[in-house]
Design a protein that fits this description.
The protein contains 18 helices and six strands. It has helices spanning about 1-15, 20-45, 45-55, 75-90, 95-110, 120-130, 155-175, 180-185, 190-195, 200-205, 210-230, 235-250, 260-265, 270-290, 305-325, 335-340, 380-385, 390-410; strands spanning about 20, 150-155, 355-365, 370, 410-420, 430. The termini are far apart. The strands form two sheets. Strands 4-3-5-6 form a four-stranded antiparallel sheet. Residues about 290-300 have low confidence and may be disordered.
Length: about 450
């Protein structure tokens, strides 16, 4: 009992010891710059129109069907406001308001359509949420007016960010301990085979043995990354590996800004002294360019919180972050096939899934059947994503039922004829074609109308 109390005391003292707030400031600036680039890129490529204005139908997350889509060009407003907020976040002006507004708007845009779900979008959401409650503006910010002198914050504020980033790497590695990834080298084998035409190394990349090397190394890299980053001796070498790894995935596979995000946030594991050296060099450059002496700005930042309330809040938060990636264990079947418990679990690059679906609407009064192809109301991306994801198929079936009941003035039934191929295996019937999907309700319960994957 004494040892437990002593250990608890030591842990509490360690977490509350003061550290230089430069690490939080560095993270804030890096996060803000990457997000600013991302949002400007999103606008420049016309994705607001393609993903949020052009579609006639939107797939909503369970429990968030009430989230409205702004009409027409009003959808550009959230991105314009987010860009403005990110500038404020970077310079640390009105930080708390800016990060809260960014979190709300970014979450809003993500809740509009399941089609656009990506692991790094979810990561941005949770990081921006955490940053609301942390003193990210304690140093190198216009809020604190502290650009040079050290401002001290409790160590746990930095630990929170490191723990979140560490969980991403660890669960990404844990999720790769699956038969397909390790024993079949899929989908890596399929993706690398498509790289055969790359000069010099294309032939080597397309070899099956290369896919196995990539799969096993990828799994070990994710599982060990956080531990090697925490060790002062191995940290610099591990970060070099992280940069090489993510640059390679960026070059070989189309995965958006995910590599840039991970390279940026992994720097949080470096020491506050390292972060302050980089920021001070930037300040030296600013002094030469502007003639301002930022070192003379007085220190005026303080950070006091209710320790018990914060401990409970972050304890609950990280408990949820531990449960979400493991919730698939409560469902029967292969999570890669059923996708129940797949999202929010850091399942990175695990599946190559192709599907085909068409719907049959039956007039219950006359028995007449109508065939419906998804492309009538969906964009190509929506159709592709919906064809392999059960909750999206269910939503679209409900949408068709509503349309036909208004048109026919009769009760209708909706059936799906769906074939799915997982990691290049032969296509199989996916949804029970005898189940009237218009009568099924979405929930967290097991979806019994998803047919089991047969071992072929």
């Amino acid at each position: 009992m004494y040892r437990q109390r002593f250990s608890s005391f030591q842990l509490n003292r360690k977490l509350n010891e003061p550290v230089d707030a430069a690490s939080l400031a560095f993270f804030r600036i890096v996060f803000g710059c990457i997000m600013l680039f991302s949002q400007l890129r999103f606008l420049s490529k016309g994705w607001v129109y393609l993903l949020y204005i052009k579609p006639k139908f939107f797939f909503k997350y369970y429990g968030f069907h009430w989230v409205p889509v702004l009409s027409g060009n009003w959808m550009y407003v959230p991105w314009i406001v987010m860009i403005f907020c990110l500038v404020l976040i970077i310079i640390g002006k009105y930080y708390r308001v800016a990060i809260t507004l960014f979190f709300l708007l970014f979450s809003y845009t993500e809740l509009l359509d399941i089609t656009n779900y990506l692991n790094h979008y979810y990561l941005i959401t949770v990081l921006s949420f955490l940053m609301i409650f942390l003193p990210m503006n304690a140093a190198f910010s216009l809020d604190s007016r502290n650009w040079k002198q050290p401002a001290m914050v409790p160590r746990w504020t930095l630990t929170v960010l490191r723990l979140q980033v560490g969980l991403v790497y660890f669960f990404a590695g844990l999720s790769k301990i699956k038969y397909d990834w390790l024993m079949s080298a899929e989908p890596m084998k399929t993706w690398l085979a498509a790289c055969w035409n790359i000069p010099v190394i294309g032939t080597w990349l397309a070899m099956p043995v290369t896919a196995y090397i990539f799969s096993w190394v990828g799994m070990l890299f994710d599982l060990t990354a956080v531990f090697l980053l925490l060790n002062k001796k191995t940290r610099p070498y591990e970060y070099i590996v992280i940069v090489i790894f993510h640059l390679m995935t960026f070059w070989l596979f189309y995965i958006g800004i995910f590599p840039l995000v991970m390279m940026g946030i992994a720097l949080v594991f470096f020491s506050p002294a390292f972060h302050r050296r980089i920021l001070n060099k930037f300040l030296y450059w600013m002094n030469k360019k502007t003639g301002e002496n930022y070192a003379d700005i007085p220190l005026s930042f303080s950070f006091t919180v209710n320790q018990s309330a914060y401990a409970f809040f972050f304890g609950l938060y990280f408990l949820i972050q531990l449960i979400l990636p493991l919730r698939y264990l409560f469902y029967k079947g292969n999570v890669l096939w059923t996708e129940q418990g797949y999202r929010y679990a850091w399942n990175v690059m695990l599946i190559e899934k192709d599907g085909y679906v068409e719907f049959y609407v039956q007039d219950k009064a006359t028995g007449e059947r109508f065939i419906e192809y998804p492309k009538k109301y969906l964009t190509p991306l929506q159709e592709k994503m919906m064809s392999t994801q059960p909750d999206m198929i269910l939503q679209y079936a409900a949408f068709l039922a509503g349309k036909y009941q208004i048109k026919l003035k009769h009760e209708v039934a909706v059936y799906a004829d769906t074939y799915v191929s997982l990691n290049k295996r032969p296509g199989q019937l996916y949804i029970d074609p005898k189940v009237d999907l218009s009568k099924e309700q979405d929930s967290f319960a097991q979806k019994k109308w998803i047919l089991s994957e047969k071992k072929l």
